[in-house]
Amino acid sequence: MEHKKRLKIGIFMDNFYPSIDGVVVVIDNLASMLAKFNDVTVVVPNTESHNEDYKRPYDVIRITSVKMPLTEYKVGLPRAKMTKEYKKLIKKDFDIVHIHSPFTMGKLGLKLARQMNIPCICTVHTRFDLEVAKMVKSKVITKGVMKSIIKTFNDCDNCIVVNDPVIDDIKSFGYKNKATIIYNGTDLEPLKEKEKYIKMINKLYDLKEKDRVLVFVGRITSVKNIFFLLKSLKLLKEDGVKYKMLFVGSGPDEKKLKSKIKSYKLQDCVQMTERISDRILLSAIYARADLLLFPSLMDTSSLVRIEAAVNETPGLFIDNSMVGVTIQDNINGFLSPLDETKYKDRIKEIINNKKLLKKVSKKARETLGKSWKTIADETYEEYLKTIENKR
Description:
By secondary structure, the chain is of the alpha/beta class. The chain folds into two domains: about 10-185 and about 370-390, Rossmann fold, CATH 3.40.50.2000; about 195-370, 3-Layer(aba) Sandwich (Rossmann fold), CATH 3.40.50.2000. The chain has helices at about 20-35, 80-90, 105-115, 130-135, 140-155, 165-170, 195-205, 225-240, 255-265, 280-290, 305-310, 340-350, 355-370, 370-390, and strands at about 10, 40-45, 60-65, 65, 75, 95-100, 120-125, 160, 180, 215, 245-250, 270-275, 290-295, 315-320, 335. Strands 3-2-1-6-7-8-9 form a seven-stranded parallel beta sheet, sandwiched between helices. Strands 12-11-10-13-14-15 form a six-stranded parallel beta sheet, with helices on both faces. A two-stranded antiparallel ribbon has the order 4-5. The longest helix is centred in the C-terminal third of the chain and has 19 residues, at about 370-390. The radius of gyration is 21 Å and the shape is globular.
């Protein structure tokens, strides 16, 4: 793709390395690809350990921050000691600001854009209502927080969503403007020496060649429906089905999940691997797995379904969830109702039908794996349109 103009882009987000989640991975990949033909600065909260910033192909500016209670995240404090930091941002002379959070860093990006009279574009990555409800456990407070979130989105000049149903979701909370759909991509590529890596995974996690391997990849938190999944696995074992399950990730509910695994007596077939940041190792885990299990209702366009698909591992998702609507059942993935017994039955049906599993695996790779270069090109074009409309 020919790029008409080298843009100065400011990307603002409330979470970044060394912490890691799906949105951090999205921003790193998008910023890295955009930086090949633009000047990109990522603006994020300060953390104790960020010695790797200089290695990235884009600039990173860290803002004074504090730890957010009840979470693993740090929150930027744009108004605390802001003089030098704010002047540093002004000097960047951005053409456009792109916020990936409606909270403190997103509001900082919006404020900066207004002061510089440049457009501000937002991306909606998640079901904020579910995240907030889990944290505050109050409908009244959740409603108030959602009102503030949607106001931030409405104040932006353009909005990108990562999946079709997200538009209806944000509109149900009062979003008034148009939104553009740009799906997520992946940096993972199919392993060139697949058999070698599969043997490595077998040794690493004590798996036999004949074992049927299931995998969950993501944050270990109840909003990802991990306890629904574990109950389904308990029922699967009670049905006499032999399997090995890997939970790949870290998060606030790790202890609770370990305790449930023990109380369900699943230690012989369920392992927790902690978070894996090595992309080749993660690819190898996907390649070894027969099926990705991802019953999350809160995710909008989960990266893991794309990462797994690149390695010919299809996923089992929930009917009518935001991730589920991107899947054609028995074509490029699998769907199940939100019911532990039915989910268990679906797992059993899929892993016992090798012919169907093989066919769906290949189709998943063909239809779901989009590169970050393609996503960056689409985002760049959206930047140009937004800048032109602002004029």
